[in-house]
Write the structure tokens for this entry.
Amino acid sequence: MTTKILVVDDEPAVTDLLAYNLRKANYDVLTAANGREALDLARQSNPDLILLDLMLPEVDGLEVCRELRKTSNVPIIMITARDEEIDRVVGLELGADDYVPKPFSVRELLARIKAVLRRAALPESKPTEPVKVLRGPGGLRLEAESRLVKVAETVLPLTRLEFDLLELLLTNAGRVLTRERLLEQAWGYDFVGDTRAVDSALKRLRAKLRAADPEADAIESVRGVGYRFGT
């Protein structure tokens, strides 16, 4: 089936540019010009990815992201103006997977879309291989093949990005991983821009771990370097 992308922007020139290039890359494209229309289309059409402008009429992009994250883990790439740093950070903390500042390179945007979609694809089942299980304090258990994370008997509702970050940190427990390495390996490509996306994603992940059991959050911030999972 063709991958379906919902483009949400109130500037017709931007929408037309994105729709043209996405269709040229063999994506199925839906468009919305305001936040309310975006929410309706997202719920009705179940897109595989959403390109979401933050400055929208009726319902802004942050509220769209917040509403979608209540019921869906659909990958979201925010489209932001360069002077919208605060909104960009809030969007990442609400659960957006990535952001692209305006003006953007279509080539770079397509690369980011491919990376996010690749990360969102569930791995194929490999029943003949041993199940990879990673453990941590507080009864933390991560099952790689089923992409299941539990703290004691509580299943954590992690996004795909949060799962990938936790797996990467657990696999390298005791070692400090730089923000750049986390971006490259969890996001799936050489990230261009600041590293605030890592901090925002790990803030959400740590909050979910602590809510299940404070001991499960063994993720440590190493000032000026990155993060590690304590042993």
Observations:
- The longest helix spans residues 196-212.
- The helical segments are 12-24, 35-45, 61-69, 85-94, 106-120, 160-171, 179-187, 196-212.
